[in-house]
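User: Second chain of the day. Same drill as before.
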Amino acid sequence: MKRLFRRCGHAPGALAPEDQAVVDAFRALLDARKNPQPWTPGCNQDAAVRVGPFIERVLPRPGDDHGPDLIAVCLEHPDYPYTPYPHRYTRKGWLRCETKAILGVWNPAYRMLTHAAAGLDLPDDVGMAPALYGVHVEARRKNNRGHILLRLGPYNQARHTDRDVDRLSAHLKGKEDEVMPGFTLTVKGAVFDVSDHLAYCDPYEADATALLTAALGRQGAV
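Assistant: Same format as last time:
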């Protein structure tokens, strides 16, 4: 009796194009994990970070990616900018990311290790705290030369930023010549500069007006 045999997909020989693509992608992933391209602050490249058992793509915030220890990032779809996260994904906004948690420069080979590839939502806790808003009190002379007298942040909500901007502006109104002669003091809402986080005072641990009074005292204001 004559039998006909067909070679199964696991038999040696040439692979089908779709199988070869899977093998190539897996080899690229192994190489990327074994030899990641180092990410350095200020390199202007997306990075890969671990979120639980997954690896995700993060976009550093322009101008806020130079800190040696901490930068601001947002989570992006692995196919960004062509495929944004759909609405079912939780949008996290800007986050504080320790540079030691960065695995390396983002490599498309990591895509199969993302939540998106697994058809999962991003978790509520991604292991990074928000890096949102700040308040700056600027002191300037008539020639426009000056400096930032006080930095407050990070604020978790914009309404908290607006509240302290209003409070500090009202506190300084009509007192500039008294508290810091020769300077114009301006209170502004700003983006929290996570790269310079050590220069900020936490607005949730102390009253904003008390922090301003202390800052003026350090400047020798009366």
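The chain is about 20% helix and 25% strand.

User: Great, on to the next one.
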